[in-house]
Design goal:
About 55% of the residues lie in helices and about 15% in strands. By secondary structure, it is of the alpha+beta class.
């Protein structure tokens, strides 16, 4: 079975290919209508509409697969250029490939099949091939490619599924749904920022957030927001095995950071450490804002998760969760769990049962704060 991130990428590529195939069909309809108009209905016998339509649709689908793969892969890697320059460079690259795919076969056909094998013959055949219709086709598909890349980048900016939710209006009217949240936060971020400087600390954060993205996707999580040095991830609840994904995600992130330890040491002379809290409950989801619109989560579940995160330091656990969330998953079977005393969180009246979670093979704990006087 394909990994979730790979499955998501395949789905996007197929969606692009199908969309391009539909655009190819629309272009065929336009070309067919134009041909019928200029010939006054006397369409030549050698013209077969079904074959021509299949050529339009299949070539568009194939192009969508190839360039869709390139664009999706590009959208999932860190950009080396600004948003606008990225679209411009990719569009120019596409035009170059498109023109090459026309020029090379024309030159080869002239040299191998033509009666006159000369530069003049090649020039005449190229002029015949690169006619007005060809340039219009290049322009249309360059625009399609640019729009495709633009939509992919906007989808990446908004987050997984958010653009589609905006289009369908799923959360135009607020609705209540259950979610599992993980708040993941860098340890000692203020100290690190003072040590390496705020500019380099931003680079550290950017590198860290890029590294945690893949483990999140691999474990079916969705990134909700970045808040300073913290990332908020959520899952839709499922069966007990699916509800264990947030816990697997935390340790997958831990493994990823350990593998990249040398990279962080070389760049910043440190390896980032982190803590996290996992909690599930009901939230209200809806569109909010006028000048800047977003789909936001609201409710006590978010506040409780944040309060649980603040207890990591005092309890010594890098991963804390609520007992009710553990009970709905296979966390206890997959990891070592330590049930803590009932704790009244800051701003709460009712105490909550917290559980510390560790990997069976090793502990991932933060240093406990000294007891208060």
């Amino acid at each position: 079975m394909a990994k979730p991130s790979r499955r998501s990428a395949i789905q996007r590529v197929l969606l692009i290919a199908l969309s391009w195939s539909l655009i190819g069909t629309l272009l065929f309809v336009y070309a067919h209508s134009f041909l019928a108009a200029i010939t006054a209905g006397n369409i030549p016998d050698y013209y077969h509409p079904l074959t021509t339509w299949m050529g339009f649709a299949l070539s568009s689908f194939a192009g969508g697969l190839v360039f869709g793969y390139v664009l999706v892969k590009q959208s999932r890697t860190a950009r080396r250029r600004s948003f606008g320059r990225e679209i411009l460079v990719t569009t120019c690259w596409f035009i170059g490939v498109y023109v090459t795919s026309i020029v090379v076969p024309t030159v080869l056909a002239t040299l191998s099949l033509g009666e006159e094998r000369s530069l003049a013959a090649i020039g005449r055949n190229l002029l015949a091939t690169m006619n007005g219709a060809t340039f219009v086709s290049i322009l249309v598909w360059a625009i399609v490619l640019g729009l495709t890349q633009f939509v992919l980048q906007i989808n990446t900016k908004l987050g997984q599924g958010v653009l589609w939710n905006f289009i369908t209006g799923k959360y135009f009217h607020p609705r209540e749904e259950n979610r599992i949240f993980m708040f993941l936060d860098l340890n000692d971020s203020t100290t690190i920022a003072e040590k390496i400087g705020h500019r380099r600390f931003f680079d550290l954060l950017s590198m860290f957030m890029a590294d945690v993205a893949e483990p999140i996707l691999e474990n079916n999580g969705r990134i909700y927001s970045y808040v300073g040095d913290e990332v908020i991830v959520y899952w839709s609840p499922g069966d007990r095995q699916q509800n264990t994904d947030p816990y697997r995600c935390f340790f997958a992130i831990s493994d990823r950071i350990k593998r990249e330890a040398e990279k962080y040491t070389d760049a910043f002379d440190l390896v980032p450490d982190f803590k996290a809290a996992i909690h599930a409950g009901s939230v209200t989801i809806g569109e909010m804002g006028l000048v800047k619109k977003d789909i936001v989560f609201s409710g006590d579940t978010l506040n409780t998760t944040s309060r649980i995160l603040s207890e990591c330091r005092s309890t010594g656990f890098a991963l804390l969760t609520s007992a009710q969330t553990v009970e709905r998953s296979e966390c206890a079977a997959a990891f070592n769990t330590s049930t803590l005393d009932l704790l009244t969180l800051r701003g709460k009246q009712k105490p909550i049962q917290l559980v510390g979670v560790e990997r069976r093979s090793e502990s991932h704990r933060v240093e406990a704060s000294p007891p208060k006087d």
